[in-house]
Design a protein that fits this description.
This protein is an alpha+beta fold. The chain folds into two domains: 2-76, Beta-grasp domain (Ubiquitin-like (UB roll)); 86-154, [2Fe-2S]-binding domain (DNA polymerase, domain 1, Orthogonal Bundle), CATH 1.10.150.120. It is built from five helices and five strands, in the order ββαβββαααα. Strands 2-1-5-3-4 form a five-stranded mixed beta sheet, covered by helices on one side. Helix 2 packs across helix 5. It comes from Ottowia pentelensis. This is (2Fe-2S)-binding protein. Residues 1-77 form the 2Fe-2S ferredoxin-type domain.
């Protein structure tokens, strides 16, 4: 089936089998490998992207469901000149990553979180990020990164 959508501001189209997952389309067809495959069950959040302004897990979404959608992956977050998005900069500044496997999904979820909950408390941040798992950091630096980004975006 033919699918047409916008990814990181660019129109893309392809003929794909109807059972193609969005994460497969992004990684294999578009060669945007920043979106990771972690659990294949929508539990870990490594595959999180933003679709039409909301974060979704691309490992359990068919690309056919996204026909006409506007998708942003981690590759589409930084400015064209390479300047990091405030969330990316905060994760770097606060050491909100270790191995980096969960980081793209955490960044995408944080962008969505701060867009829809710009004044979230620490407890709310922890609750709103429950769908993203990290096996390395213990989350304290991730929460600090979200709070730092929160302040940067409010300024």
């Amino acid at each position: 089936m033919k699918v047409e959508l916008k990814v990181n501001g660019k129109a893309v189209s392809a003929d794909v089998p109807p059972n193609t997952l969005l994460v497969q389309f992004i990684r294999e067809h578009l060669r945007l490998t920043g979106t990771h495959v972690g659990c294949d069950t929508a539990q870990c959040g490594a595959c999180t992207v933003i679709a039409n302004g909301r974060s979704i897990k691309a490992c359990n979404t068919l690309v056919a469901q996204m026909a006409g959608a506007d998708i942003t992956t981690i590759e589409g977050v930084a400015a064209a000149d390479g300047t990091l998005h405030p969330v990316q900069a905060a994760f770097k500044e606060c050491h909100g990553l270790q191995c980096g496997y969960c980081t793209p999904g955490m960044v995408m979820s944080t962008i969505d979180l701060l867009k829809h909950h710009p004044t979230a408390t620490e407890g709310e941040i922890r609750s709103l990020l429950e769908g993203n798992l990290c096996r390395c950091t213990g989350y304290q630096n991730i929460v600090a990164a979200v709070q730092t980004a929160q302040k940067a975006l409010a300024a």
